[in-house]
Design brief:
It contains five helices and no strands. The protein has 133 residues and is an all-alpha fold.
């Protein structure tokens, strides 16, 4: 996360330029970027579910196992390359878009930081109580 923050600080002026052009447009783009991140996460999960489903197939002959393992290796490579690259790209877009939303609506870093701290405390409490699932 520190590398992300460092890069964000370094490129902050470039990232802010679209806000100066049209605030309504950057808010629309932010919404679209959030939707694209949802899609990227869904694709990662779908590939993982396919992987798990194939691994649970019973009974299998040794020949089927080899065939399945070859297919699964191919799927895993595809998932790690194509889907993971897409996931990283969409995450970067969302981080940039969130900064636009903060700037457009006048949300201070300290306010978001307060909520992050509050949510982390709540999450920690739920985990300790066995309620986080």
């Amino acid at each position: 996360m520190q590398k992300i923050l460092d890069m964000f600080r370094k490129r902050r002026n470039d990232i802010r330029k679209p806000i100066e052009m049209d605030k309504r447009v950057v808010i629309q783009i932010a919404q679209e970027e959030l939707a694209e991140l949802i899609q990227a996460i869904s694709k990662m999960n779908r590939a993982a579910m396919y992987w798990e489903k194939q691994m649970k197939r019973i009974p299998r002959s040794k020949e089927e196992d080899r065939d399945i393992n070859n297919k699964l290796s191919m799927i895993e490579r595809l998932r790690n390359k194509k889907f993971k690259d897409n996931l990283c790209e969409e995450m970067a877009d969302v981080i940039i878009a969130l900064s636009w939303v903060m700037d457009v609506y006048g949300v201070a870093d300290k306010d978001v930081a307060w909520y992050i701290n509050m949510k982390a405390n709540r999450m920690t409490k739920r985990i300790k109580e066995g309620e986080f699932y």
